[in-house]
Automatic annotation (TrEMBL):
Top-level taxon: Bacteria
InterPro entries in alphabetical order: PRC-brl_dom, PRC_barrel-like_sf, Spore_YlmC/YmxH
Record-linked SUPFAM superfamilies: PRC-barrel domain
The protein's name in its UniProt record: YlmC/YmxH family sporulation protein
Sequence ranges assigned to domain PRC-barrel in this UniProt record: 1-78
UniProt-listed PANTHER family: SPORULATION PROTEIN YLMC-RELATED
Cited Pfam families: PRC (PF05239)
Phylogenetic lineage: Bacteria, Bacillati, Bacillota, Clostridia, Eubacteriales
């Protein structure tokens, strides 16, 4: 799977069925090549422009399933909206 394919998927929190947005970036471990987390920009934030809103940083272990058009995550409260 390519990063551009991940960016086309909407992220939904299974705890409250809330739509978090679309994947904005991916965090990788360069030495292993493994994905560590996906980053979802907060509302009103477009590629870091138009105001720097908080973002969701979702570790790979919190991703429940990656489907054809959505990514289901179980977002822990302490990880919601980090700056």
């Amino acid at each position: 799977m390519r990063i551009c394919e991940l960016k086309q998927r909407e992220v939904i929190n299974v705890k409250d069925c809330k739509r978090l947005g679309f994947v904005g970036d991916v965090d990788f471990d360069i030495s292993t090549g493994k994905m560590l987390a996906i980053i979802v920009p907060g509302p009103g934030c477009v590629w870091g422009f138009l105001g720097r809103e908080k973002e969701y940083i979702i570790p790979f272990c919190d991703i429940c399933q990656i489907g054809d058009d959505i990514i289901l995550v179980r977002l822990k409260e302490e990880r919601e909206k980090k700056e």
